[in-house]
# Entry
Amino acid sequence: MGNKKSLTYLISKFAILELFFVLFMILLSFMLINVLINTGIVYPANYAEMNSDTVKYEFLKEDWKIDKIPFFYEYQLRDNGEIIQNTIDERYNQKISEALQKGESSKDQIVGSDVFKAFKKGNKDLIIKYKISAIPTNPNVYKIIGSFELVFFISMFCLWLMGFIYLISNLTRKLRSEIRKISKANDSIEKLHLEFEREHSDYTEISGVLDSIDSMARSLKASLEKQWNMQMTQKEMIESITHDVRTPITLIKGNIELLKEDQENVQERAEDALNGVERLESFLKKLNTFSDLMEVPKEVVSKEVLDYWIKIMTSICKLKGFRLSILSYDASNIQLDKIAISIAIQNVVNNAIENSLVGSTIFIGFYDDIDDFTIVVRDQGDGFNKDILYDVKEKFVSTKVHDNNIHGLGLSIVTKILETNKGQLLLNNYADQGNGAEVKMVFKK
# Structure
């Protein structure tokens, strides 16, 4: 146990690795851009700014030609206000006008800023546009990629993303490997393969779960073995009783038949006795094939059972600061599992309490009709969401459907209880005598 690590350690390790990787990528980007600049592959970001005065100086010469403008400048040449040559996009016309008026203008961008400068020589005006960003020294490369910094940053991001995916895939693979151990153990228990190979984990949390599963498997195995031994013992006992009783039954039958032949005045009694013995023999035959898988004993819903349920609900309401009001108090001849139904009612009442204000009233009613017995629970909360009730309002909901929580109701528990007692659910909102949610548990007779 001392060598085991926490999952927090694993995730923290990944986070630290990712942090160092980010710092490494930033340092690599900085070093790489410097190498490119120092080797003359890329001009620095201020290169176009620095050479703008050279462009102006050349433009003012008498022998100036437009092909002397470096490739990394866009330009517009005007003569008496008329555009003669232009490589600047029309969307920058406003910035060109500002440059002509002020001599210079700029436009901020996500990567670098666009700068416009205007130079005047007689009737001619030259406007150049350049970006404050690194520039490839090769004109052909510049034409292909345009903004070097954008391409550079995207490339660095792709490299970082590949590294990040590699790191997170390693973390995911490790977590999957640990979770697979739990899943494998669960599958073995589900299939009742209780002698499965136990796996171990280097991580505290996973190891704890595996130990719990292992303990559960051992307990289940012991319970199944105990149950099997009880069944075998019971079977042996029944077979023994059957064998021992068969002989006296044979003697009784023989004597009764002799009695019928010798004493006709007691024939009627003898036939009755014979029929009783035959039934006893039939019972013993059923006992020989007896199964230990019996249903849970059920009992009639008497006043005592209702008092038992109400006593539980009263205790819950008092503890939570709610009032309990009895809507109806009908006993019934229907037979239900008293303990299980009390759990279902308790679940519904707890849910009603969770969705109501403290001090309000919880209503419970027991209604006995010809065909069914109904338990009703109402609260004074906000009621069920109308979207939930769209498909279930005013009709019974099978407990085999909707195996999830509705209005906070633990249907995973209530469903099983109602299923074993032939019950159905009716969910609704009511408006008479206030408003709130209404849950009905209807048991068919």
The chain has a mean pLDDT of 80. The radius of gyration is 45 Å. The CA atoms of residues 358 and 442 lie 28 Å apart.
